[in-house]
Amino acid sequence: MKFQKLCVLGLGYIGLPTASTFATNGLEVVGVDVNEAVIATLKSGGLHIHEPGLRTLVSGAIQSGMLRVAAQPEPADAFIIAVPTPFYEDDKRADMRAVTSAAEAITPHLQKGNLVILESTSPPRTTVDLLAPILEKSGLKAGVDFHLAYSPERVLPGQILRELIENARVVGGITSESAQAGYDLYATFVRGNIIKTNSTTAEMVKLMENTTRDVNIAIANEFSRLADRFGVDVWEAISLANLHPRINILRPGPGVGGHCISVDPWFLVEAAPDLTPFIRTAREVNDAQPQFVVDLVKRALGSLEGKKIAALGLAYKPDVDDLRESPAVEVVHLLQDAGASVKAFEPFAPNAKLPNLTTVPALNEALEDADAVILLVAHSQFKSLDATEISEIMNGYVAVDVVNGWNVSVWKNAGFDILRLGVGG
Ligand code: SAJ
């Protein structure tokens, strides 16, 4: 199938790179977002998200005339839905409202022979049970009059532009013709393998990938607790276990954040609670890790009441600016609940404003007068900090390293009492 015009609904971390990449590969693309501020920013040459290389890609696509942004979809050969699918905080059910309204916005423009692809991470059977019925309100039949497919994005924040092109891509059609149509569309720029399957399999593939990562991190976090109890250095133990050719234990840390790994396993738990005790437990282990970190800080300081703490890093993982669902933020909140006064410094978002949290725009401001410094995110620039310089600014000499980012002997030589996550003594 040949495509000339494409509508991409949702111009976030996935939709905007996808729309721009199609545009720079010869398709006429209309990027659609319901957020007026996003449209205004893009129209004025700005960018509302941070991703290496994205600014150049987007401005090139817009200047070439192949990418336009708009508040509403319009008739096209193909539509890609790349909107957020968060969960409801209270019962962890998938919040599918954005997918539903994106589909409703496409329906009036749908024509015979079109292709619609959902990329948003979704519970199993969403494409057939939720999406198809909405699109069929157009009077056209899914799989007969128009093609319908699910294709998960699998790109890593920080590496999106490269991975979008190079990663293998799974395209699940509700019919084999739909899968083939999806294949043809992504073949415009994807250099990795494009594998055709059915839509529910493709939905499961994505959920299984992120759930596997979550349970693997949960076991690493549980190992950190065991090591702490048994007087073992978990980082050493993991590196030794990983010498085994078929073992690859991940890294313990303050918990699991971001908008994918800490969310997606719930879609499986929600869809089949009776079949998922293990997946649920892994989620709960990771969600409890911030409290484990706070208990460690409490042990280092005796009590948290009235203590001044410098928290280094708020992002959900190293070297990104994304604070969504970040366990580091959760740790800061729990420290404050326990009576500590915390100043947090996040170099990738120095002016971030978060509820009930004091961020400072410079490292020294966080460290001044602090009784303890705690390393929550292994940003490259934190790993190379000079312990002696830091000791001169602070009031106390307690350091807590949650991510194995600091060299213990260097910090000890600088006069610090240093405690690490997962290192019992
Ligand atoms: N983390 C650990 N220990 C580790 C690895 C990660 O505690 O050993 C933590 C991170 O600090 C972070 C969280 O897990 O808080 C998630 O980070 P991540 O790098 O594992 O994943 P994301 O959310 O940035 O991106 C993931 C990727 N999925 C997988 O690696 C299986 C990406 O390919 C997906 O496209 C993305 O989720 C998504 O959109 O689903």
What does it look like?
The chain is an alpha/beta fold and 425 residues long. It has 2 domains: 5-198, 3-Layer(aba) Sandwich (Rossmann fold); 264-420, NAD(P)-binding Rossmann-like Domain (Rossmann fold, 3-Layer(aba) Sandwich). Helix content is 40%, strand content 14%. It has helices at 15-24, 36-43, 54-63, 97-106, 126-135, 160-166, 176-186, 199-230, 234-241, 264-271, 277-301, 327-337, 363-367, 380-383, 387-393, 408-413; strands at residues 5-9, 28-32, 67-70, 78-81, 115-118, 147-150, 169-173, 194-198, 308-312, 341-345, 372-375, 398-401, 417-420. The radius of gyration is 24 Å and the shape is elongated. The termini are far apart. The chain binds ligand SAJ. Residues 121, 153-157, 209-210, 213, 217, 250-251, 253, 256-258, 260-261, 316-317 line the site of ligand SAJ. Ligand SAJ is lined by residues 121, 153-157, 209-210, 213, 217, 250-251, 253, 256-258, 260-261, 316-317.
List keywords for this structure.
Rossmann fold, 2 domains, 425 residues, eight-stranded mixed β-sheet, five-stranded parallel β-sheet, 40% helix
